[in-house]
From TrEMBL, chains A, B:
<keyword id="KW-0805">Transcription regulation</keyword>
<keyword id="KW-0804">Transcription</keyword>
<dbReference type="InterPro" id="IPR046335">
    <property type="entry name" value="LacI/GalR-like_sensor"/>
</dbReference>
<dbReference type="GO" id="GO:0003677">
    <property type="term" value="F:DNA binding"/>
</dbReference>
<protein>
    <submittedName>
        <fullName>LacI family DNA-binding transcriptional regulator</fullName>
    </submittedName>
</protein>
<dbReference type="InterPro" id="IPR010982">
    <property type="entry name" value="Lambda_DNA-bd_dom_sf"/>
</dbReference>
<dbReference type="Pfam" id="PF00356">
    <property type="entry name" value="LacI"/>
</dbReference>
<dbReference type="InterPro" id="IPR028082">
    <property type="entry name" value="Peripla_BP_I"/>
</dbReference>
<keyword id="KW-0238">DNA-binding</keyword>
<dbReference type="InterPro" id="IPR000843">
    <property type="entry name" value="HTH_LacI"/>
</dbReference>
<feature type="domain" description="HTH lacI-type">
    <location>
        <begin position="2"/>
        <end position="56"/>
    </location>
</feature>
<dbReference type="Pfam" id="PF13377">
    <property type="entry name" value="Peripla_BP_3"/>
</dbReference>
Amino acid sequence: MATIKDVAKRAGVSASTASRAMHGSSMISKPTRDKVVKAARELNYAPDFNAQNLATKASNTIGVVLPVDHHEIFSNPFFLEMIRGINQVCSQNGAMTTLATGISSEELVHNIDVMIAQGHIRNFILLYSEKNDPVVTRLNHFDVQYVVIGKPYQEVNRTSYVDNDNIQAGTDATQYLIDHGHRKICFLYSDLTKMVQSDRILGYQRAMMQKQLPSILLGERFENHAAGVTALKKFFKAHPDVTGFVAVDDMLALKLQQVLHNDPDWKVRQFSLIGFNNSIFSDLAHPTLTSVAVFPQRLGEEAAKIVMADHPADELTTAVIVPHQIIERHSVHPIASLK
Amino acid sequence: MATIKDVAKRAGVSASTASRAMHGSSMISKPTRDKVVKAARELNYAPDFNAQNLATKASNTIGVVLPVDHHEIFSNPFFLEMIRGINQVCSQNGAMTTLATGISSEELVHNIDVMIAQGHIRNFILLYSEKNDPVVTRLNHFDVQYVVIGKPYQEVNRTSYVDNDNIQAGTDATQYLIDHGHRKICFLYSDLTKMVQSDRILGYQRAMMQKQLPSILLGERFENHAAGVTALKKFFKAHPDVTGFVAVDDMLALKLQQVLHNDPDWKVRQFSLIGFNNSIFSDLAHPTLTSVAVFPQRLGEEAAKIVMADHPADELTTAVIVPHQIIERHSVHPIASLK
DNA sequence: ATTTTAATTGCAAGCGATTGCATAAATTTT
DNA sequence: AAAATTTATGCAATCGCTTGCAATTAAAAT
């Protein structure tokens, strides 16, 4: 493995000159810079990561924090997409990423503690956002900068984040059904404590209100088929003429679809569905599911860009909103309705 | 951030003594060791990651290589599960993990090149295995140790790996159907070039052969509903009396199920299905899908354990087989058949 | 032609830890 | 009680790189 001294020797200069030349310092003359760069290339030189970080006291690795392990979360391809985005821009900027995981909140915090204590993490990116997150508390306590993907709950004005405009996405999805002639539209959610869900509901309500249509909410997880059937039976009793559903995510939409399709009464009616996330489920459904894409990879990229920009501590925080987009498939059917 | 000198000063000893004490060197007396450890705890000391690695010239981070980006791959929750397993045992051993990704083979190789050149990666873990992998070539060239998850293609005798016994898994899945009275069983696959698939087929064939039953293979991706219907029509013409399917993975099983369920002719017959991977799809199906679980997290853990063990270069390689397990749900129906 | 100023380069210290070797203290041995 | 060991500790060099400052050289000004 070539060191800076090897490069220096080969270029016939001192190590310090070589170092400066490699960094494009203005105090090095063009000819020597060229000599050094050439030598470096010939030796396949790359500065030793640890030595460099030690000398500059400026670490170059980004800690990516996954939410506490939970099967549901880990089977969500979202995270990997975000990671891919982060890694993409990090490696373009010569930074590394390292993961923080834990099977419990305590373990995760502990792991983060040692990462901080070892002092080689420049910044953190949190792939999630939740209320009273001990990780956030920890990071604030040690005064470590971080970016969250999602809407921050704590220190809202002091934390940078990147997120979708979920309210708008909710409105757009609903409007899409309205545009296709639907008037009796139900919003299906599974967990009100998640801000993504409540935001999308808000957006749905806004769209409905604008058209003076009543909001119809349904909270149901479809944990199993029977439970789903029961819930829907009850639901249709109260709202017999619903024609469209906005489901808070594709998985829920797919579950709903399964239930609707396997019931002799319901399957003859042609319901329209729209989901969110444009996940793999949308292609698995039959008919394939129209869905609002939210581009997790972009979220990751933007988060990484913020981190890479390396703002001064006193600068205002950054918030980036990644646009969404409706991906049209075959689960929304137009209905002729009176204006 | 406390340094070893701070600890030393507080304990009233020299830095070298402090360092040795922290490492439990036998040349340090009990009382001083205690003093040092106490001081370290009080100062919340953790050795600086970069300094330590620089001094010992022994890096402590593991590079985790994801396959080249490809939507299909990134939407597969498998990888994240493996990563979780890896991270789990790495952090228990005080090691870090860092990810290598790339949107093209070239980019991935390049990223790995710089990681190697920067000299701070101890070992790599490849989360995949494929023929003529340029990454493997690279790692061999630089003589960097690595472990692959899956069956190695190159340098088979010189590389450690962890994998499932996919042949056996194929046999077991098939046998499960046979035990439920099925005799006309079809194996459904999507990509013969993948060793997982060909191995599972082999296992299937072994089980069938043992019972003197003929193998019935069907290669179909179900890219869309119509294509699926066509393929199945043709298939059933040739094999009208098939009652059970072994699908090479859950997603394919789910797609098959969708097609079967949405056709008036087929839906009245009660086919039995078994899939692989026990993925989230198995719970989404209706009826829920019986599936062979393969425990990706365990795969990750075992891979990390091999890496952590830090075998001498001349030692024999390690191969770990992670057991699989059939998770019974509701997609396999017994049929009364004559012995 | 001499002095000033500007442009380059190298010396050496330091980042925070580890470790071979010398030294000091404690313990045995004679 | 002096010498020989054994046991504990500290000094100083080192890992590879960066950077303040002094030193050298070249260019410009007088």
